[in-house]
From TrEMBL:
Family in the record: Belongs to the ROK (NagC/XylR) family.
Protein name: ROK family protein
PROSITE patterns, per database record: HTH_ASNC_1 (PS00519)
Upper taxonomic lineage: Bacteria, Bacillati, Actinomycetota, Actinomycetes, Mycobacteriales
Entry-linked PANTHER family: GLUCOKINASE (PTHR18964:SF173), ROK (REPRESSOR, ORF, KINASE) FAMILY (PTHR18964)
């Protein structure tokens, strides 16, 4: 195996290799980094002193001294995760591998503002932390995802028609009484994209996630990197103009947006206009699955309109996989039947030749798993680990 020649690789860079591979010998670490045996041993010892890695002997196959395996220690700490939606918040405590140790939900009324909801979020996370049996000082970070564009520098919603009263409100201060660990905030579709990239198989480097729920948004992984855009507005395709929505008012204040005819809120409004007692897109999905003809038509047409707009994105980005996530996954076959017809009819044959269209791997857990993934990528990055190791081991 050729060396990557990162020399002199920092301890954080070495840890990143161990985290990626889970189990690796010291010899392999030397080959991958070009570091000497002594340098590898010193870095591994520093990681072990902070509990970040474990070592165990590998039984020799042909006699001689057994090799020492260095293993990523997922139990060295936890991250707290919250995926905030219009009517529900999903919460979790996850280990450093992103596996959920405790999970819970908060149902809230639409229109709930930060001062109403965030204290409930932190109280519930505190309870889940204790349920998981972990100490407060084991918290490495908090991951929080929201619909709409996010101001990463301020840690606040930038533009979310769904979350009234949230724009411009810094959210990290709500966690100060719970933990001093960093709080990482991002868009919900971006979080889902990070979760789906990992999936249950090899990493996917070119991925397009469509979150079809109350609103419409996309998460984009291109060349292995999450694309946020210059104003953190990448993926807001729900407000693309489409001829099918000409003149239709959108909740963003404009007219002609895709969401005005294909977003979950628009489907709910259409059913209510017919005198149906509908409170959420999930109700429309339930009716469709029960055979309601109008609910099935609305969801199929939503998929068709989404596919027409997404065709340009597929041509531009050429993803390997297109993942459908959000509440619409509950009626996946109906929605995707409409989407496939218009997507493949409008995108180029080359861009769709090997394109896989699949449902979310994690279903309604995708947001909270993705929120954990985005904070883990930050707090376990090489620079973050180097900073951690510069402090005395606890």
């Amino acid at each position: 195996m050729p060396a990557l020649r990162l020399s002199p690789a920092s301890t954080g860079e070495l840890y990143d290799l161990i985290r990626t591979r889970r189990d690796v010998t010291r010899g392999e670490l030397g080959q991958l980094t070009g570091l000497s045996r002594t340098a590898v041993s010193a870095r591994v010892a520093a990681l072990a002193a902070h509990g970040l890695v474990d070592e165990r002997e590998q039984a020799p196959s042909t006699g001689g001294r057994p090799a020492s395996f260095v293993s990523f220690n997922a139990d060295a700490g936890v991250v707290l995760s919250a995926a905030v939606g219009r009517s529900r918040v999903r919460l979790a405590v996850c280990d450093l591998a992103g596996d959920m140790l405790a999970v819970g939900d908060i149902d809230q009324e639409p229109g709930c503002r930060p001062d109403d909801l965030m204290p409930l979020v932190t109280t519930r996370l505190d309870a889940l932390l204790r349920e998981s049996g972990r100490r407060d000082d084991a918290v490495f970070g908090v991951g929080l995802s929201l619909p709409g564009s996010i101001d990463g520098d301020r840690g606040a919603s930038l533009d979310s028609p769904i979350m009234t009263g949230w724009d411009g409100v810094p959210l990290a201060p709500y966690f100060r009484d719970l933990t001093a660990a960093p709080v990482v905030i991002d868009n919900d579709a971006n979080a889902i994209a990070l979760a789906e990239r990992r999936g249950e198989g090899p990493l996917i480097d070119d991925l397009l996630v469509v979150k079809a729920s109350t609103g419409l948004g996309a998460g984009i992984i291109a060349g292995g990197a999450l694309l946020r855009g210059a104003a953190h507005a990448a993926g807001e395709f729900g407000h693309n103009k489409t001829a099918a929505a000409a003149g239709a008012p959108c909740r963003c204040g404009d007219t002609g947006c895709l969401e005005a005819i294909a977003g979950g809120w628009a489907l709910v409004a259409a059913m209510r206009a017919q005198g149906r007692d509908i409170g959420h897109l999930r109700d429309v999905v339930d009716l469709a699955n029960a055979g309601d003809a109008e609910a099935r038509r609305l969801i199929r047409d939503s998929g068709r309109h989404v596919g027409e707009v997404l065709a340009a994105a597929v041509n531009l980005l050429n993803p390997a996989v297109l993942v459908v996530a959000g509440d619409m996954v509950g009626a996946y076959d109906i929605f995707v039947a409409g989407m496939r017809a218009s997507l493949y009819g409008n995108a180029t044959a080359l861009a769709t030749r090997t394109l896989q269209v699949v449902r979310s791997t994690y279903g309604d857990r995708a947001g909270v798993i993705g929120s954990a993934a985005m904070v883990l990528d930050r707090v376990l990055s090489p620079s973050a680990i180097d900073a951690l190791l510069s402090r005395p081991a606890g």
